[in-house]
Amino acid sequence: MTAVLDYRNVTVAIEGRKVVQNLNLAIAPSECVALVGESGSGKSQSWMAPFGLSPGVAGGEAYLCGEPVIGADAASLSALRARHAGFVFQQPLTSLSPHLNIAAHLTEAFCQAGAALPDQDTLIAALVDVGIDRPAERLRQFPHRLSGGQRQRVMIAMALAHRPALLIADEPTTALDATLRREVMDLLNRLCRDRGMAMLLISHDLASVASIADRIIIMRQGDMIETGPSDQILSQPTSDYGRELLAATPRLTDPIPVRPVIGAALLAAQDIAVSFPMPGWRRPHLQAVADASLMVHEGEAVAIVGGSGSGKSTLARAIARLGPCDAGEVTWRGLPLPPRAKMQAHDRAGFQPVFQDPVASLDPRWRVADIIAEPAHHLGRGASRQFVLSIMAECGLDANLADRRPHELSGGQAQRVAIARALITDPAMLILDEATSALDVLVAGRILDLLRRLQRERRLAMLMITHDLAVARQLCHRVIVMDQGRIIEQGDTEMLIRAPHTDISRALIAASQ
Questions:
Q1: Are 215 and 180 within 8 A, CB to CB?
Q2: Measured between alpha carbons, how far is 450 from 448 in angstroms, rounded to an integer?
């Protein structure tokens, strides 16, 4: 059977530096091949440069449906992409035009290969095929009105509109919660098999692609380290790097972690409620959180888990006085915290936040040492350079990073800086809002190792917001499950995983396995 995509010793260079070397692969109709590796391994450049979608210079031979890709002029390459290839990118919100509604996006996608202008029924059918509810209503909406999962499904519908022979999905689930990740992967698998498409799947998560990929290629620093059937790679990787990737992926079947002994009550939140005004005149408020209560003890880690839009981050921000709070009381060491508008710097000293996007949470104009020292200065304590360097060392940061700016850091380094900044005030608790979800699996594993060590050595309490139960299990004594703004279940981590009481919890467990 003729390969839909055929690579022969493909190389990619950027500014004279090789980032992909001697990549060989062939994908048949209805077959899925996954390229897996950490950030910077060359996964994305291996397809973007040959297809003319990056500044990289490609060498070797590459064929799409028998036609040469490398060496084709821009017009021929554009026509070849339009006829035979569809692309699903990592960030659907930034990949969609904010000023065009969904109907306009889909219409453009249908017409890219010269097809006739689609009618309303055709557009609706395209959305139905990718599992979008209320399709006629969605066609009139703009991207910002859709959830992350809906936007990714729109991207898939656009990529498939001209019925391509090859679908390339580059980290298609990174920005999604665990349940949506599973749904999107199942959708891609079904469409690939039903339509006889070849699929090239790019990911840093070995476990998530193994369920749908026929073969896996593991890449590191531009080289093919290992390749084979997905079940073989997942069960018995032959390379040290493959074993490292597999070991870094948290699973619910891992041995039960040893967790620190907890102490007295530290933080208590009672009957928290948060609402937001809906767009439009005299529209009712959206109840984002209702009647939510929780407690965190000294040295205890508590996870708030749930799907996107469940209210977990809104609840955490209300408790930390970082976001609105309509009702309820929060006490810290038995004393009530003032409302957000009346919070002083010393009120925040005992608990510090670490946010999801490590680079975006750091001031791009400041140097690392100044970023880390800032909270101490707000408290009037000051922080000597030597003290900042000691906190950096505790967080695994080299002293030579102290004078760099955030854009000069890797994602993992930036998140370590954010953790060091949180530790400078010697807090009793960290509030971690999806602190590893923006990182690849190896870097995320190292950040979890750091948090586990800090938890043990400093007896830090943690309130951890995550969509991934397997990640929560690495650190947390207890789990709180949220859905539609309400706490629907909570309890000991192992007990909840073994015997969940709600369908939402069971879905989260299934998505994390």
A1: no
A2: 5
